[in-house]
Amino acid sequence: MIEEFNTQGRENLVAIADQFAQLEKVIDTKAFGSGNINDTFLVTLDCSEQKNFVLQRINTQVFRQPKLIMQNMCTFTEHVRKKLQSTPLNRRWEIPQVLLTKNKQDHWRDADGSFWRAISFIEDSQSFDTMHDRSHAPEIGYALGMFHNLISDLSPEKLADTLQGFHITPLYLQDYDKVLATTKVRKTPEVNYCLQFVSDRQTFAHILENAKAQGILPLRLMHGDPKINNVMFDTTTQQAVSVIDLDTVKPGLVHYDIGDCLRSGCNRAGEETENWENVYFDTDLCQEILAGYLGVAKAFLTENDYAYIYDAIRLIAFELGLRFFADYLAGNVYFKVKHSEHNLARAIVQFKLTESIESQETQIRQIIKDMK
Ligand code: GN1
Ligand code: MG
Q1: Average pLDDT per block of 10 residues along the chain, 372 residues long
Q2: By C-alpha distance, which of 112, 76, 67, 124 is closest to 96?
Q3: What SS3 state is found at 240?
Q4: Is the C-beta atom of 271 inside 6 A of ligand 1?
Q5: Domain tally for the chain?
Q6: Is residue 130 one of the residues assigned to a domain?
Q7: How far is the CA of 129 from the centre of ligand 2 (A)?
Q8: Domain for residue 352, yes or no?
Q9: Against a cut of 0.85, is the pTM above it?
Q10: Do 74 and 20 sit in the same domain of this protein?
Q11: Last residue of a domain, one of 88, 121, 154
């Protein structure tokens, strides 16, 4: 999709970006980031302050009610803005802002019916797909902790469910079973490995949902996608300054976030590697990320919350592998792919990571215990 815009649609893209520019002129648009769902562009304006903004076309096959996303974003940013105003932090922290169109709307529909929205770019910051520098580990934890901290007093009912079933592992398992029942699967060694991997973890897949249903883990607000490249770092200080990508901020378990942050931050080889033998879960990074997280989040975590952190790390890695694998079997209908085996390769990365997490269960549980 991005290529299509770059070759055929640049003028069109400038015209769309222009809807969100006020007096400034759009001087450049380029594909931006490595998102798997929406199409994202960085727009440059002819202006000395706030030179850039992020323009996105929301994938409405995934986010069926994109207006809810914008509504949630506005509720979230307003809450956090007020909170930071009354209790300022002693370091830089930024909240991505929704930018309005010339007609004061929070989105714009083009002639094809595509849903476009614009978000402020956090100036002088950058993100990384894998752990770039050890010193980033506590910062990534701090960023997630700060994010949770800032919304810990916003009640979950204030935000809508922008993506039903998101991170409900048993539902992904149901979808997977449906795909398996209706698809003729070509059984290569890689496919067989994945089939067996999922089959061996049927009971485990329910662990967080069971704890939620039994009231052991409370429903809170979560980010939904706090992977390493959604944390922005100040280019000068190299401190974390923002958590971006707010589309899935909605009621859920903080455990999905803790699991997602650690499964992405501690996988030094990254989600996109095809060198599966290099994939492992780095427990030193896990210790540092968790220390950064707990430095800010300790105040609202309960004894039960700690008891499920290990399972959350294991589950979210497994769940993402399951989601990639099911999408491969379904013909790559959800995640963007560069080739037909792409989702299969991504699934294997997450399953190898899950194996590494499982093989280090004792150490990981000890790290968590020592930090309480
Ligand atoms: C998707 O599009 P992106 O990269 O922000 C996905 C996440 C996955 C992630 C894996 C709405 O996020 O759940 O963890 O890919 N988002 C959605 O990279 O499904
Ligand atoms: Mg995302």
Answers
A1: 51 94 94 96 91 97 98 97 96 97 97 96 97 96 98 96 97 98 96 98 98 97 98 98 98 98 98 97 98 95 97 98 98 98 98 98 98 90
A2: 76
A3: strand
A4: yes
A5: 2
A6: no
A7: 13
A8: yes
A9: yes
A10: yes
A11: 121
